[in-house]
Amino acid sequence: MFQVRFHGRGGQGVVTAAEMLSVAAFKEGKHAQAFPSFGSERTGAPVVSFCRIDDKEIRLREPIMVPDALIIQDPTLFHSVDVFQGLPETGYVLINSARGFDELHIADYIARFPKGHAHCVPASDMARAHVGRPLPNAALLGGFAAVTKQIKIESVLAAIRETFPGKIGEANARAATAAYEHCLV
Questions:
Q1: Side-chain half-sphere CA neighbours of 121 within 13 A
Q2: In a 3-state reduction of DSSP, which class is residue 32?
């Protein structure tokens, strides 16, 4: 089983990102579940969502305490939430930021991960360029596909287009493709 924990703020599409990832997994014939966890239901409040992917039925229902991957949609959470809690040294980290690990003051922590397991992705910038709004969720899923190889980019793009039909879906698919290509470098 591969477990992903998403951290962000209300209004950034954290819950939608987990749902789209589960749809992408379903499209590949896998089992998946996605669910949120949040306290204050307001824009800007910290939000956590989860996605599990497996080749067999998933019976677990509790929050993911030891994730295989973290997708951090808002790095300002570093100051208020222990987003890295439970992540093993073999895990993956995607952070929505145009800044590097040194500028984010987490370079020492990130150095413990294998090469290629941690990436900063300017997902908000990519979304702004393609969608017209700085919503990083779809772009980060493209980065997730490139970094973890758990899901194919084609499945991610199909899930995005299914979630956001029409022009918005196509724009989000372009942002996801840009993030995918960014993480392959």
A1: 41
A2: strand
Token pair in block for residue 151: 């899901």
Ranges of each domain in the chain:
2-184
73-112 pLDDT tens trace:
999 999 888 999 999 999 999 999 999 999 999 999 999 9
Contact 70, 7 (CB under 8 A): yes
Between vectors from CA 136 to CA 130 and to CA 142, what angle results, nearest 5°? 80
Q: What's the CA gap between 56 and 111, in Å, rounded?
A: 33
Quote the CA–CA distance of 116 and 128 in Å, as a whole number: 26
pTM, two decimals, is 0.94
Q: What is the CATH architecture of 2-184?
A: 3-Layer(aba) Sandwich (3.40)
CA distance 105 to 95: 13
- Judging by beta carbons within 10 Å of its beta carbon (0-12, 13-18, 19+), is residue 50 exposed, middle or buried? buried
Beta carbons within 10 angstroms of residue 74's beta carbon? 21
Quick one: which H or E segment has residue 38?
strand 31-38
